[in-house]
Amino acid sequence: MTDIRVKSGEAELIGEVSGEGRTVVFLHAGVADRRMWRAQVAATEARTVTYDRRGFGDTRPQDEPYAHIDDLLAVLNHVGAERATLVGCSQGGKIALDFALAHSERVEGLVLIAPSIGGAPAPETFPPAVEALLEDLEVAEESGDVDRLNEMEARVWLDGVLGEEGRVSGELRALFLDMNGVALRASQLGEERPADPAWPRLADITAPTLIVVGDLDFPHAQERCSRLASLVRDARLVVMPRAAHLPSFEHPEAFQGHLDAFLASSSR
Known about the structure:
Protein name: Pimeloyl-ACP methyl ester carboxylesterase
Pfam families: Abhydrolase_6
Organism: Deinococcus yavapaiensis KR-236
Number of strands: 10
InterPro entries: AB_hydrolase_1, AB_hydrolase_fold, Carboxylesterase_BioH, Epox_hydrolase-like
GO molecular function, one term: catalytic activity
């Protein structure tokens, strides 16, 4: 494993490269950092690249305008990857989609895990139990108590709004709280330049695409992934049982089977 420091604007993106072969870049969720991919880095037979985005993990934010897809392009150029498969979870999935639309020639394949999607229809209502959790989350956000907010975000994103509280425990929960705690305490510097909405342009995605979602995630996230699979021309949907918003983190062995099969098929 080799440590990398990638200059992008005034930021220095901290990451790691491991293994040999085709390049697979893992893009972390907005409640995590590159450590969420430890199991995948160890198990994937490829050259894997992970890095912390601005304000996450070991990468400090900078007081400047920035775009996540520009940072990703800087990472690919730094490691000498002309093309790569992008594996992104949640916010990381959004970045992968936005990058594929902006730089299709650099993308060999996409693995999108419960991705956020710019321009996607927002849910008008939530089931009562989900609405109650979102109200609790809002109260935690307004409290100014970072530890309380961190625990509440673990309840929503790790346990899942359709799962029972404390469903995920032990080392996984401790790592989630550590990763998300770093992000919650980071300085909010810099202004993100958002990409154009991806939702109206999903038919323009040409790369083979695997979409993964957990059956304990938000109902609208599951519906969005189903719609995504129907709108991208070469896409397949996998629903992972007993998994919430971070299925690759929760069930790395099961996810790895799907990832390995996708990498094998998309390299033909």
